[in-house]
Design goal:
The protein has 211 residues and is α/β, with parallel strands linked by helices. The strands form three sheets. The chain has a six-stranded mixed β-sheet, with helices on one face. It has a six-stranded mixed β-sheet with strand order 7-8-9-10-13-14. Its cofactor is Zn(2+).
Length: 211
C-alpha cells in the first residue's frame, strides 16, 4: 500500500490517498476547499491513473470534511464514517461560515465504519480501530503489512489531539492512544491529520503527553 499526502486549507490538514498495485484508491479526510486544492487532488489522481473507490473520514471536524461532497460529486463512491461522529458531521454547517468556509457543501455518509470490520480495496485490507477522545466517533486505520497507521487527530509528533472541542475528553483520548496505538510495533509509521509523520516508538519514548 502506498500513502500519498496533501496538506489543505488554513488548518494545514493532511489529506491522504491510499492506493496499491491495482490502482484502486481510498481518499481519507479530504480537506480540499478552494478550487485550486480540489484541482490538485483531482490532477494527482488522474496523473497516477488511480481509480477512487471509497471515501472515509477518521472523524468529522470541519477541516477534515471540507472536500467530502467534492469527492462524492467527482467520483460517485461510497462514504463511510463511524456512526458516533454523525452529530459532529451534521454540526459543521452551523459554524462553517464563522470559520471562513461559507461555501461548505455538506455530505451525508452512505454507510458506517465499525471497529473490527475491515476496509477493503484492491489487494489491501485496513483494520479499523476505534479511538475516541478528540472526537466521539474517531477511528484510525491500520495496515499491518506495511506497519502504517492513518491516525487523524489522535497522535501527533510530540503532541496529541485537542480535547476542548464538543465531544472531546482528555482521559478518553489518552486511553485510546495507549490501547489502540501504543499496542502496535514501535516501527509503525503514524500519518497524522496535521504535521509530519512519526512512529509509535518515537512517541512512546518522547511524547510529553504520554510519559
Amino acid at each position: 500500500m502506498t500513502v500519498s499526502g496533501f496538506t489543505f486549507n488554513p488548518f494545514s490538514e493532511n489529506t491522504y490517498l491510499l492506493h496499491d498495485a491495482t490502482n484502486e484508491c481510498v481518499i481519507v479526510d479530504p480537506g480540499c476547499y478552494e478550487p485550486a486544492e480540489q484541482q490538485a487532488l483531482r490532477q494527482f489522481i488522474e496523473d497516477e491513473g488511480l481509480k477512487v473507490v471509497l471515501l472515509v473520514n477518521t472523524h468529522a471536524h470541519i477541516d477534515h470534511v471540507l472536500g467530502n461532497q467534492f469527492v462524492l460529486d467527482t467520483y460517485k463512491v461510497p462514504f463511510l464514517l463511524h456512526e458516533a461522529d454523525l452529530p459532529t458531521l451534521r454540526a459543521v454547517p452551523t459554524y462553517a461560515a464563522n470559520y471562513g468556509f461559507p461555501q461548505y457543501n455538506p455530505a451525508e455518509p452512505t454507510g458506517t465504519l465499525t471497529a473490527g470490520t475491515p476496509v477493503k480495496f484492491g489487494n489491501t485490507e485496513l483494520e479499523v480501530r476505534f479511538a475516541p477522545g478528540h472526537a466521539p466517533g474517531h477511528v484510525v486505520f491500520y495496515h499491518d503489512p506495511t506497519a502504517t497507521v492513518i491516525g487523524g487527530d489522535v497522535l501527533f509528533q510530540g503532541s496529541i489531539g485537542r480535547t476542548d472541542l464538543p465531544g472531546g475528553d482528555h482521559a478518553t483520548l489518552i486511553s485510546s492512544i495507549k490501547s489502540q496505538l501504543l499496542t502496535l510495533p514501535d516501527d509503525t509509521t503514524v500519518y497524522p491529520g496535521h504535521g509530519p509523520a512519526t512512529t509509535v516508538g518515537q512517541e512512546r519514548r518522547t511524547n510529553p503527553f504520554l510519559q
